[in-house]
Write a structure and sequence with these properties.
The protein has 13 helices and ten strands. It is an alpha/beta fold. The chain binds beta-D-ribofuranose and calcium ion (CA).
Length: 311
């Protein structure tokens, strides 16, 4: 059965690859794309989403809506050091021709989930969890109706925003807590896994050989993204966000364990840390999973195939 996804994102170089993977893989279908403030301002990431949709030749009937312009409680924070001033610096992108959906992203998420069969929609957030948290508060019935939430964020043993906190969770920890505690099945694709989804020179050659416009775009964005990560000591840049989509397409790619999960909301040095209790087998009622690793080679095979199917 084709899995229907709502991609809630802040594109973002790695968000862009997540969108392309979902657009090009026959195992999933994009039900909607929604944007959230994160890597750059909401206006910039929304424009980027429209441009990526244009480049990928995404069906114009797939709605794209703009979401939250800042986190629930905290000031907006962006990541120009990794994504540049536009949020997607580097590649050349076509002008968007499609219009934004007039609804707020939170409303589009609720409408899409409530209009679908129970268990049909999977939420795939790859930015701060602000929109999803607001949707849960505005229409709590979505919790029962969504099949599962597979989000990129957090980490068990590693941070990138702080020593123990990851950007998407750290910039809106209260939203992350609402989403993780909601009671639906949640899989956290954190840095433990995504730091293994890296672009080695061999992977880069494989991507360059694909030959489509979408693959050329990925090459251009990786030039900028790889240079940005090199400043922080990464020999090979990790692409975080598409690991979520890959996990939905083929769960055997990602090693996950079921474990109680919480977000630190009061820590002096650990605000935004995701705390997974791995000490013992999880209790029966536990509905949170954490990713601990990904098979890099097979992950990129999936991305390559998707890029080959796109314009
Ligand atoms: C996450 O932060 C963003 O910069 C990336 O797009 C990714 O979602 C990695 O910490
Ligand atoms: Ca992102």
């Amino acid at each position: 059965m084709t899995r229907r996804l709502i991609l809630d994102c802040d594109p973002g170089h790695d968000d862009a690859i997540a969108i392309l993977l979902a657009a090009g893989d026959p195992g999933v279908e994009i039900a909607a794309i929604t944007t959230v403030s994160g890597n750059q301002s909401i206006e910039k990431v929304t424009r980027n989403a429209l441009q990526i949709a244009e480049l990928a030749g995404l069906d114009a009937r797939i709605p794209i809506a703009q979401g939250a312009h800042r986190p629930l409680l905290r000031e907006a924070e962006h990541a120009p050091e990794y994504h540049g001033e536009s949020g997607l610096d580097g590649p050349r992108l076509p002008e968007p021709t499609r219009a934004l959906d007039p609804r707020h992203a939170v409303q589009l998420i609720i409408d899409t989930v409530m209009a679908s069969e129970p268990g049909e929609i999977t939420l795939v957030p790859t930015g701060a969890l602000t929109n999803i948290a607001l949707a849960v508060r505005l229409e709590p019935r979505i919790v029962e109706r969504v099949r599962e939430v597979v989000f990129m964020g957090g980490g068990v043993h590693v941070g990138n925003h702080g020593p123990f906190s990851e950007f998407n969770v750290a910039i809106d920890p209260e939203a992350a807590a609402i989403v993780i505690d909601a009671g639906w099945p949640v899989t956290m694709i954190g840095l433990d896994a995504t730091h293994q989804a890296v672009v080695t020179p061999e992977i880069r050659s494989r991507l360059d050989a694909v030959g489509t416009r979408s693959a050329a775009f990925v090459g251009e964005l990786l030039d900028f993204y790889g240079a940005a990560y090199a400043v922080y000591g990464f020999e090979h840049p990790p692409v975080h966000d598409p690991v979520t989509v890959a996990q939905v397409i083929d769960p055997t790619l990602v090693r996950t364990v079921r474990a109680p999960l919480a977000v630190e909301l009061t820590g002096t040095h650990t605000l935004g840390m995701t705390v997974a209790d791995l000490r013992a087998e999880a209790p029966e009622a536990c509905c949170t999973w954490v990713a601990l690793g990904v098979e890099n080679d097979r992950f990129w095979t999936l991305v390559e195939s998707a890029l080959a199917r796109l314009p």
